[in-house]
Design brief:
The chain is mainly α. 62% of the residues lie in helices and 0% in strands. The protein has one domain: Four Helix Bundle (Hemerythrin (Met), subunit A), CATH 1.20.120.1630. It is elongated. Helix 1 packs parallel to helix 4, helix 4 runs antiparallel to helix 5 and helix 5 packs antiparallel against helix 6.
């Protein structure tokens, strides 16, 4: 149970400070163009669902439904911290090109530094790891399954939308895409 509280604290702190990583008005704007394909709204909904699932773990555990050994929470918490670190690093490397919605910033180029040298979407990988780790911190199998399905599905849609936009709009992206992994090095 302590790992669940710590995971929730980590998520709340990250959500509060994540906005500070955005550089400039374009990066902070929530106005989405057609390239976004409502993926930003879906992400918001998925985050809400995942928060509710994590909160539901208290009830599920009280009823002894899908409870797992308590030790699972600690590696989950470590995974969540690693995910936040990867997301933060990715956002800092992107700088002004890091935006809330899917759009091409004026003067944007393909970023190949830091984690982007290997993976095209390390920030999304960071968030997937964060949410799955937070779910593991609950020590509840239903929560882990629900969060994993929700977050992977919504990021799959977001990545597909972003790749389509970047291929159509950003010079050099097709070449960069051919030389990097989408999300997980050596696997995908």
């Amino acid at each position: 149970m302590i790992t669940t509280f710590l995971a929730l604290l980590l998520l709340f702190i990250f959500v509060i400070f994540e906005g500070r990583l955005r550089q400039g008005a374009a990066a902070s704007s929530i106005s989405a163009g057609e390239n976004d394909r409502r993926s930003t709204r879906l992400l918001g909904l998925a985050y809400f669902v995942c928060f509710m699932l994590i909160f539901a773990s208290f009830l599920l555990d009280a009823l002894n439904i899908a409870s797992l050994p308590a030790w699972i929470g600690w590696p989950g918490l470590a995974l969540a911290v690693a995910g936040v670190a990867l997301r933060t690093w990715s956002n800092r490397v992107l700088g002004a090109f890091y935006t809330r919605t899917l759009k091409i910033a004026e003067g944007q180029t393909v970023v190949r530094a830091g984690p982007y040298a290997v993976v095209r979407h390390p920030g999304y990988l960071g968030m997937i790891l964060t949410w799955i780790g937070a779910a593991m911190a609950t020590d509840n199998g239903l929560v882990i399954l629900g969060v994993t399905i929700t977050i992977v599905a919504v990021y799959a849609y977001r990545i597909a939308s972003e790749e389509k936009m970047l291929l159509a709009s950003l010079d050099g992206y097709a070449e960069y895409r051919a030389k990097t992994w989408k999300l997980i090095p050596f696997i995908f």
